[in-house]
TrEMBL record, chain A:
Compositionally biased region (Low complexity): 766-776
Domain TXNDC16 N-terminal: 17-100
Domain TXNDC16 third thioredoxin-like residues, every copy: 238-327
Name of the protein in question: Thioredoxin domain-containing protein
Name of the encoding gene: TXNDC16
Lineage of the organism: Eukaryota, Metazoa, Chordata, Craniata, Vertebrata
SUPFAM superfamilies: Thioredoxin-like
Key words, A-Z: Membrane, Transmembrane, Transmembrane helix
Domain Thioredoxin: 379-479
Species whose genome carries this gene: Electrophorus electricus (Electric eel)
Residue ranges, annotated region (Disordered): 748-788
Boundaries of every TXNDC16 second thioredoxin-like domain copy: 116-237
Listed InterPro entries: Thioredoxin-like_sf (IPR036249), Thioredoxin_domain (IPR013766), TXNDC16 (IPR040090), TXNDC16_2nd (IPR057642), TXNDC16_3rd (IPR057645), TXNDC16_N (IPR057639)
UniProtKB/TrEMBL annotation, chain B:
First and last residue of the signal peptide: 1-19
Keywords: Oxidoreductase, Signal
Protein name: FAD-dependent oxidoreductase domain-containing protein 2
One GO cellular component term noted in the UniProt record for this chain: endoplasmic reticulum lumen
Record-linked PANTHER family: FAD-DEPENDENT OXIDOREDUCTASE DOMAIN-CONTAINING PROTEIN 2 (PTHR43539:SF23), FLAVIN-BINDING MONOOXYGENASE-LIKE PROTEIN (AFU_ORTHOLOGUE AFUA_4G09220) (PTHR43539)
A single BP term in Gene Ontology: ERAD pathway
Naturally occurring in which organism (per UniProt): Electrophorus electricus
Length: 788, 690
């Protein structure tokens, strides 16, 4: 404390104002301190800050410092540059610097802060099953463990847990976790669904170390009162035995507002009954209390037909007949408790609603646009009568084939129209559409079997399918690039240089900075193959061709000999050269596609598939919204690590969360929370699916990255999460018509029994069988004129 | 030698050797064809087209001088009652065939019946005219004036592989590897009873209504021909009674076009409004028609009261054969009052005499030209008037002999449209595919689709396909599920399903198969009454009108399954079934009521999520799950992801289907594309209304 005072200014109310240097010092010192970062006064957090500052003195009594960094004066990496950071209070403690992020919100009050700080040692943070195991081992035979899973710290659930720890801290070992790893360990089926939950681990009664602690999951929302009740229930005896009528039994459960279940025992089966009751008690522990009533006492007036009863809080006793344990569990969980739960929270656990809500994001968004009339002026609809003429005209005709009932078709039609507007005025390029719902033979003739489908028609050439992303930007770029021939034949080395630098055909620079050049000294070096490959890549990649003896001159100073491919990734970027080996045009095209891929790409929605295809683990750097040194420096470190050949087994790549906001969900899915940026993650997506998080407290330096990867390789790092194996089963329950038929019209959908000959065949109407000679024509009877 | 089944080839070579002399010498030469089509009616020409298209060696033999001779005579009153709806408001050719009941199938877009007539109910002569046009424009191989009087089976003795020898009126022989009988039904159906010789037949009655002036007419039969006759004479005849065993079945109630069509049913009006016409039910076998003088009974003095005009004119009385042999066991030629039912039963419906009795009982198949071993048995349905055929329309017991056209109606008699041009044209197409597989090893054509495209493709079929629509409950599309892909086969005969692999040459994988069928419903409600239509998709199985039903089977049903199928079902109980709710406009393309429920059904059958996702979602899911949903795998990861635009994403986010990027700093969602557009030097005039 004394030293700290020397290095930073301390305001009158006990608040420490840090400089960059004192901040670093503070981090190294291992003191517990709350620090927040401010740039300018933010009205939403102002009140909070005021309260916090006021309590700084009080907290100091607990040995906790409250600090502030004024970012407008001091620049501290990772913290001062990010908008996000400004909204949180950071708790620093020990060498691992950042322990916790506290959200500023109405639910977080000083009250909580104090608890949190005070209880810091009381509540152990665990992240992995192994860590939990250690806690359990220590507790066995001495104390029970209460473990809370809090997904986002600072929410009311977190506060409830902390309050409970304050009250019960001396009695139980409190443990807190936030990742999904432990959830899975605790057999939670769908960890992504769980916001907060709590377990009671019965370790006190476990004597042998090899024995696991049985645990009970609290099945109610994490509130202070629920936790209190739950812990009381854990303390209550598993099974209460009584020899009076259920109405007279007074047990602790009744006061705790939980259902009580009564089982009736007869003297002759008392041992068996007790086993049953205990089994049931374990199953229902924390949800209901169990009482075993001995019938031999005359005061038990329950009729013999019933062997069980239950009493819901504030309700009267109800008798029933128990057949097996499972039945009671089902009764309680599915019928009795939901009634309560409904009262509490109507949104929870609603049975699947068959109402007509679309659950397909594309279908729903198109449906919401059903009032929209698309302006199809620029995308004339072709018919069977106009189609042939339209695609035969000179120039390029781009035709979208669609069907109206396909949401993807209708959504893409919007993009197609956007492209048509964007390309208006471009000579020799027209867009049109064919509604395959109406012009089925046109689409049939063009062999269209999937929708939407884009075909490019050029006179004298076979129709070429568009095989790119179905998006306005991708199609637009493709069509623009396609305007120029491929390859572009260049006539001098100067032109080659200019082409590679982006000066030649500079209009394409914005769409496709990558350029590939084929250099040949003579036409017999496989130029034809290159030309063929270039044709197939038209619109995809800008390719140049230079065939000349003087091309040899280029090899000076390069290690590659001709014929060769030169790749430029943009003006000023180091060009790469690749020797051209004899190959087929198809293989060459594939090779060119590979070559143009970045070695340290920024992953975007548009390009991810190209990189995922490589099947390597992703060494993924998430960077924040801004540009600047905070972003570029980690990128440089990654490049450095890559340049020394240390990252060959992984694909180093990065995601800019500003440009690719979906990356945020990815990061959150990986770690369970969004850490401060930049964040480096290793995602073994093609392999075992484990995700590792580069320790945020460690500087992101190339050598650290390499070291960290090495440690992962050696199984020395704990994984921070795992990519789940999602089966992608049907998203909603099946609406079973057969079951409904069987219920509403028994027999209607049943196979006929094999023995009975099918009678009443449709083809043999009863009328014909009703012969003429029968009663109808007996003269004594009337020949009835059958009314229709 | 186009047939490629090896043993057939060998055997036929052998037979060629044997018949060499006959092949090249003499007038009585035997001509060889792989396919002989008997009859140049609509079914024969239809098959001719498919055989010509697949370049098979075939001949169509026709005894008359032009095609469709049946229609030169019938219907007698020369009005076709097949719907020729030229104006549908649609230009989808496939869809329009749902409402064009006369055209044959071909690859010529304009070879349609509407070229010869635009009437909803066209003049009958238009049909042979159309057939003639069809035959000429497609250049079909028809040999007219060839009257085949005898058909013999020529067995090779092995595996029952028969070929057929046809002999014409000149003794010329045609040896056919495969015989396709499309002779139609033209032998008038007759019932023999006392006095049946006094009855005129539909085939020969005068069609001029004046001939029936003030006459009482009894018509035997209550089908379309009976009503057609009644309708034509309604304004001239004094009294028209229709008599047959079963009550009138109205096509608009039964959905069977062979039942009484409303176009002919004016008599129902005059009957119900008590204008002297009527319908009576009773058997035909034991009736009798007897002749008596006009005044009837025993004549008294002063007999010439009635005047000269009726002198000699005999009247016809309806009676029962048992009344004729009442008195002494002998039938006396003179009919007395006691021989008539009215004598015993004073208010007997048909007690008044008739001037004419007309038989309108339909037609039967001509079995007489077939030699014993070549003759298919009589069908168990339709009173044996039709030949019995297998589910793939081969005569029972006559391998390589197929029955096409109206004569093949025993498969779906009183059920679907297989007896009518608009139905059997599809059956012929299906049989042709079976022939191609059996004799040429060309498997049933199939569209291979990525499974993510299955939903739009099924919707396409149910919204336009005419085959399953016309041949409802008989032909169905079959989808072979193969995991990420599937094969789509059109219009397979459902009853032949147990023999699917052999007939189609396609393999059913362990993923099972789907069958898309069009079906009418339970039909338990009043056809025009309230509650006749269902609009809730959750109650789609109660739909009454034609609607698509999709069956899912894990394995191909067996013959036994098929036999024991639930009463009234076209197929056995499946592993899962989906009814698409009937639609007033027959457009099953709405997202909430049609598309999504179908998607969920497919998801259940395929055990996978079939939803579509924007590229952004696929990006997220590709990075956060080890195997993203099918749509992302088949589109996005295949570099053909579907991007969408910010306007649509906004909708999806508002609906809670796409995560919002909370708290993230997004520099204008749509910025990048607008930027790129400005580079292009074009104005961005978005048509989308934000």
């Amino acid at each position: 404390f004394h030293r700290a005072r020397n290095m930073c200014t301390k305001s009158t109310n006990g608040l420490v104002v840090h400089t960059a240097a004192s901040f670093t010092e503070n981090m190294v010192s291992g003191r517990t301190s709350f620090i927040y970062f401010v740039k300018q006064a933010n009205p939403t957090v102002k009140t909070f800050i005021e309260q916090l500052e006021m309590s700084a003195d009080a907290l100091e009594d607990y040995g906790i410092l409250i600090g502030k960094v004024n970012c407008s004066e001091e620049t501290i990496e990772k913290y001062c540059t990010e908008e996000e950071v400004m909204k949180k209070i950071h708790l620093f403690r020990g060498p691992d610097v950042l322990r916790i992020v506290v959200l500023f919100s109405r639910n977080v009050f000083l009250f909580f802060l104090i608890f949190f700080a005070v209880l810091f040692d009381e509540v152990r943070c665990v992240h992995t099953p192994a860590e939990l195991g250690r806690v359990e081992r220590a507790a066995k035979g001495t104390a029970d463990v209460v473990m809370g899973h809090i997904r986002v710290l600072g929410l009311p659930e977190h506060r409830a847990l902390m309050e409970a720890a304050f009250v019960y801290g001396a009695k139980y070992q409190f443990v807190q976790t936030s990742g999904t790893l432990l959830l899975r360990h605790m057999e939670i089926a769908d960890p992504s669904d769980v916001q907060a939950c709590l377990w009671f681990l019965h370790c006190r009664t476990v004597s042998r170390l090899s024995e696991p602690c049985p645990h009970t999951l609290m099945r109610k929302p994490l509130t202070t009162i629920n936790i209190h009740t739950f812990l009381q229930l854990m303390e209550a005896p598993l099974l209460t035995e009584a020899a009076v009528d259920p109405a007279e039994v007074d047990v602790v459960y009744s006061h705790l507002n939980v259902p009580v279940i009564f089982l009736f025992s007869r003297p002759e089966t008392v041992h068996l009954d007790r086993v049953t009751a205990e089994t049931l008690a374990w199953r229902l522990r924390g949800e209901a209390g169990l009482v075993l009533i001995h019938r031999d006492n005359p005061s038990v007036k329950t009729p013999l037909v019933y062997n069980a009863a239950y009493r819901l809080p504030q309700e009267s006793l109800r008798y029933f007949t128990l057949k097996n344990v499972e039945e009671v569990v089902t009764l309680l969980r599915d019928q009795l408790l939901p009634k309560e739960r409904e009262k509490q929270d109507k949104e929870e656990e609603i049975e699947y609603d068959w109402s007509d809500v679309l659950d397909d994001e594309v279908a729903e968004s198109v449906y919401r646009d059903r009032g929209l009339m698309l302006d199809m002026d620029k995308v004339p609809e072709l018919t069977a009568d106009t189609f042939s003429a339209a695609v035969m005209q000179h120039g390029l005709m781009v035709v979208l084939f669609y069907v109206k009932w396909d949401a993807v078709s209708m959504a893409f039609l919007q993009s197609f129209v956007e492209v048509a507007h964007a390309l208006e005025g471009v000579n020799g390029l027209d867009l049109a559409s064919v509604n395959c719902g109406e012009w089925t033979d046109v689409c049939g003739d063009q062999n269209i079997t999937s929708f939407p489908f884009v075909l490019l028609y050029q006179p004298g050439e076979a129709a070429q399918p568009y095989r790119g992303m179905l998006g306005a930007e991708s199609l637009h770029t493709f069509l623009l690039l396609r305007q120029d021939p491929s390859p572009l034949e260049l006539s001098s080395l100067a032109e080659v240089a200019s082409f590679l630098e982006g000066d030649l055909y500079s209009r394409h620079l914005a769409h496709s900075p990558v350029r590939v050049m084929g250099l040949f000294t003579s036409a017999d070096q496989g130029v034809a193959v290159f030309v063929e490959a270039a044709k197939s890549l038209r619109g995809e990649i800008l390719l140049g061709l230079f065939v000349n003896k003087v091309a040899d001159a280029w090899t000076d100073g390069h290690t590659v000999s001709l014929p060769a491919l030169l790749v430029s990734r943009g003006p000023g970027v180091q060009q790469e050269a690749h020797t051209l080996l004899p190959s087929t045009s198809q293989n060459l095209a594939e090779r060119i596609r590979c070559i143009v891929l970045d070695t340290f790409p920024e992953l975007t929605v548009e390009n991810l598939p190209w990189y995922l295809e490589q099947g390597k683990p992703l060494l993924l750097l998430f960077v924040g919204g801004g540009e600047g040194p905070l972003m570029t420096q980690p990128l440089e470190e990654m490049r450095m690590a890559q340049s020394v050949g240390q990252l060959v087994d992984v694909l180093p790549c990065w995601i800019h969360l500003g440009r690719t906001p979906a990356g945020r969900s990815v990061l959150k899915a990986y770690l369970g929370f969004v850490p401060p940026l930049p964040a480096l993650v290793l995602s073994r997506i093609g392999g075992d699916g484990e995700v590792f998080h580069f320790p945020p407290e460690r500087p992101l330096l190339s050598k650290n990255i390499v070291q960290w990867l090495q440690r992962i390789e050696n199984n020395q790092e704990q994984c921070a999460g795992a990519i789940p194996e999602v089966a992608w089963d049907p998203p909603v329950p099946f609406y079973d018509f057969l079951a409904i038929m069987d219920e509403e019209a028994p027999g209607y959908a049943a196979q006929r029994s094999p023995k009975v000959k099918p009678k009443g065949k449709k083809e043999q109407p009863a009328g014909e069988a009703r012969g003429a000679a029968g009663a109808a024509l007996n003269p004594q009877t009337h020949l009835q004129q059958t009314e229709l | 030698m186009e047939l490629i089944l090896c043993f057939i080839c060998l055997l036929s070579l052998f037979s060629l050797v044997l018949t060499v002399p006959g092949d090249h010498h003499g007038d009585n030469s035997t001509r060889h064809h792989d396919y002989c089509v008997l009859g140049a009616g609509p079914a024969g020409l239809q098959m001719g087209f498919f055989l010509a298209q697949s370049q098979r060696d075939y001949i169509i033999l026709e005894r008359n001088s032009g095609p469709g001779s049946f229609f030169k005579r019938y219907p007698r009153h020369r009005k076709l009652i097949s719907i020729n709806k030229v104006y549908t408001g649609r230009r989808n050719r496939e869809f329009n065939l749902r409402h064009d009941w006369n055209s044959l199938l071909s690859n010529r877009p304009n070879l349609l019946f509407q070229r010869v007539s635009r009437d909803l109910y066209p003049e009958a002569d238009a049909f042979p005219h159309y057939l003639s046009m069809f035959e000429k424009e497609l250049g079909l191989q028809v040999q007219y004036g060839t009257d085949i009087g005898r058909i013999q089976a020529s067995g090779f003795g092995l595996n029952g592989n028969k070929s057929y020898i046809l002999t014409d009126q000149n003794g010329e022989e045609y040896k056919c590897r495969v015989l396709l009988v499309s002779t139609g039904l033209w032998v008038p159906e007759e019932v023999h009873f006392v006095g049946s010789d006094l009855v005129e037949g539909y085939e020969s009655i005068p069609t001029d209504p004046e001939e029936y002036k003030d006459q009482a007419v009894l018509i035997l039969g209550k089908g379309n021909s009976a009503f057609e006759v009644a309708q034509s004479i309604l304004g001239r005849a004094s009294r028209i009674h229709l008599y047959s065993p079963s009550p009138v079945r109205l096509a608009w109630q039964t959905h069977y076009v062979g039942d009484l069509r409303a176009v002919n049913n004016e008599l129902l009006d005059t009957y119900q409004l008590k204008s002297l016409d009527g319908l009576v039910e009773g058997g035909l076998e034991d009736i009798a028609i007897v002749q008596r003088g006009k005044d009837g009974g025993k004549r008294r003095a002063g007999k010439n009261r009635m005047g000269k005009s009726s002198e000699g004119k005999m009247q016809l009385y309806f009676t029962l054969s048992e009344l004729l042999d009442r008195q002494d066991g002998n039938r006396s030629t003179a009919i007395t009052a006691e021989n008539l039912p009215g004598y015993h039963d004073d208010n007997f419906s048909l007690r008044q005499p008739y001037d004419r009795v007309i038989r309108c009982l339909g037609f039967r198949f001509n079995f007489s030209v077939f030699d014993g071993s070549a003759c298919p048995p009589h069908s168990s349905t339709a009173r044996g008037r039709l030949p019995a055929v297998t589910a793939w329309y081969e005569g029972r017991g006559t391998p390589n002999l197929f029955i096409l056209g109206t004569a093949a109606h025993s498969r779906d008699y009183r059920m679907s449209a297989g007896g009518f041009v608009h139905g059997f044209r599809y059956i012929v197409r299906a049989v042709h595919k079976i022939l191609e597989q059996r004799y040429h090893n060309n498997a049933w054509p199939a569209n291979k689709l990525p499974t993510s495209q299955l939903l739009p493709w099924i919707l396409k079929r149910v919204n336009e396909a005419s085959g399953p629509y016309q041949m409802f409950e008989v032909l169905g599309d079959i989808i072979l599920l193969q995991g990420s892909h599937c094969e789509y086969l059109e219009e397979f005969p459902l009853q032949a399903l147990p023999r699917f692999s052999a007939l189609s040459g396609r393999h059913v994988s362990e993923h099972g198969l789907l069958i898309v069928v069009m079906q009418y419903g339970l039909n338990r409600t009043d056809t025009l009454g309230p509650g006749r239509a269902e609009s809730e998709w959750t109650k789609a199985w109660k739909s009454n009108f034609l609607h698509p039903v999709i069956y899912y089977y894990r394995t191909v049903p067996t013959e036994g399954d098929m036999r024991r199928r639930p009463v009234g079902w076209p197929l056995p109980r499946p592993d899962a079934v989906h009814h698409m709710v009937e639609d007033f406009l027959t457009e099953w393309d709405q997202p909430v009521s049609h598309s999504q429920p179908l998607r969920r059904f497919l998801e259940h059958c395929l055990h996978m999520d079939l939803r579509a996702f924007y590229a952004e979602s696929c990006f997220r899911l590709s990075l956060t799950s080890r195997k993203p949903p099918l749509f992302c795998r088949q589109g996005y990861l295949n570099k053909e992801g579907f991007v969408g635009n910010s306007h649509l994403w906004q909708h999806a986010r508002e609906a809670g289907l796409m995560p919002t990027h909370q708290g993230s700093v997004v520099p204008g969602d749509d910025g990048s594309f607008s930027d790129c557009l400005s580079h292009a030097g074009a104005d961005m005039t978005s048509t989308i209304n934000f």
